[in-house]
From TrEMBL:
Record domain B box-type: where: 92-139
GO cellular component term of the entry, any: cytoplasm
Protein name: Tripartite motif containing 34
Primary gene name: TRIM34
Pfam families named among the record's database cross-references: SPRY, zf-B_box, zf-RING_UBOX
Keywords assigned: Coiled coil, Cytoplasm, Metal-binding, Zinc, Zinc-finger
Keyword field contains Zinc: yes
CDD domains documented for this protein: Bbox2_TRIM5-like, SPRY_PRY_TRIM34
Main subcellular location of this protein, as a coarse class: cytoplasm
Domain called B30.2/SPRY: residue spans: 174-377
Subcellular location, record wording: Cytoplasm
RING-type domain segment(s): 15-59
Length: 377
């Protein structure tokens, strides 16, 4: 309703030259009114142009600008219209010049303030660089957006990651990486070329021609849970190292085996998963670590009690390549994650070997092959 009421009065107090509300209106001889600034500019253009005085832009009458006088009634109408606009919310007092009452449509770069058209033509701002208010507002809006995001990026405190994420994505210190690298390089000096022993090979295992790769195959209708195979080489002293590729496997066992005086290495299919924990332990000649159910890494060690000790292993990234280091002098068997800068996975200590020690491999029932890596590969 307010916009309809304002439509007709606003049209009546609009200057026909600048198409804005009249500012300091002057009455022409024909009865029409123009802004004082528009009359001045229009007259100057007439003098520099055709040399003829222009008539009224509305009715075209000539000789109407000789006796110009202030149009007080129109000025009062303009003032009333502005008050109505401010009261109804269709106009803002801050949008108008306090000196001339004209809209602030320009911005003065030198004085850093908004101007109306009359202010721009005044001596105070003559020769200054002015820009449209819309352009300045758009630029400021873009800049404020940049500043807002800058504050968010630099000042907002990030959320604390969960313990699981810290463990998964925590990057090791450079000093730690260098130390692990040097340690691994020293250990790899003892790399031996280990191959798989085809003697007494289970029917559920398939060996490659070079004896470096083994994979499990199902034998229907028999169910077998023992997929163990020894290396062709054995050791009685010194230091020895080898690497195994277990990429994409969901289950495996790796380590060393020493035949105990009262036991014999069993390559039959009689072992079940129910006695896995009790079988693969140092007491029975096995120093091994393994993977089961795709994500569970573990080691079978001895405990102070009579039962075996199953140690859950914390692994930062999935194991793809593993190094095994057998050290007779220190009585240890250590496992290294070659995929993660050669970080230590687990170490068996106080190992005692009454007989020669063999590398031990078990691909379990996972069809993905287990591969022995050649030295320095």
């Amino acid at each position: 309703m307010a916009s309809k009421a304002l439509a007709k009065p606003e049209k009546q107090v609009t200057c026909p030259i600048c198409l804005e509300q009249l500012t300091e209106p002057l009455s022409l001889g024909c009865g029409h009114s123009l802004c004082q600034a528009c009359v001045t500019v229009d007259s100057e253009e007439a003098e520099t142009g055709s040399g003829k005085e222009r008539g009224c832009p509305l009715c075209g009458c000539r000789d109407v600008r000789r006796d110009l006088e202030a149009d007080r009634p129109q000025a009062d109408e303009v003032e009333k219209l502005r008050e109505v606009q401010l009261s109804t919310g269709t106009g803002k007092k801050a949008d108008f010049c306090a000196l001339h009452g004209e809209k602030l449509q320009l911005f003065c770069q030198e004085d850093q303030k908004f101007l109306c058209w009359l202010c721009e033509r005044s001596r105070e701002h003559r020769g200054h660089h002015t820009f449209l208010r819309e352009e300045v507002a758009r630029e400021c809006q873009d800049m404020s957006g940049i500043m807002k995001w800058s504050e968010i990026w630099t000042l907002r405190k990030p959320k604390s990651p969960s313990t699981k994420l810290k463990r998964v994505f925590q990057a090791p210190r450079l000093s730690t990486v260098l130390r692990m690298f040097r340690e691994l390089k020293d250990i790899q000096d003892y790399w031996v070329d280990v191959t798989l022993n085809p003697v007494n090979l289970n029917l559920n295992l398939v060996l490659s021609e070079d004896h470096r790769q083994v994979r499990a195959v199902p034998i229907w209708p028999f169910k077998c849970d023992n997929y163990g195979i020894l290396g062709s080489q054995y050791f009685s002293s010194g230091k020895h190292y080898w690497e195994i590729d277990v990429s994409n496997k969901t289950a495996w066992l790796l380590g060393v085996y020493c035949r105990k005086p009262s036991r014999k290495f069993d390559s039959s299919c009689s072992t079940t998963r129910t006695n896995t924990c009790s079988r693969y332990r140092p007491q029975h000649g096995y120093w091994v670590i393994g993977l089961r159910e795709k994500f569970e890494y573990y080691a079978f060690d001895e405990s102070s009690s009579s039962g075996p000790k199953v140690v859950a292993l914390s692994v930062d990234i999935p194991l793809c390549r593993i190094g095994v280091f057998l050290n007779f002098e220190a009585g240890t068997v250590s496992f290294y994650n070659i995929t993660n800068h050669g970080s230590l996975i687990y170490t068996f200590r106080n190992c005692f070997y009454p007989r020669p020690v063999y590398p031990y491999f078990n691909p379990w029932n996972c069809p993905v092959p287990l591969t022995l890596c050649p030295p320095s590969s």
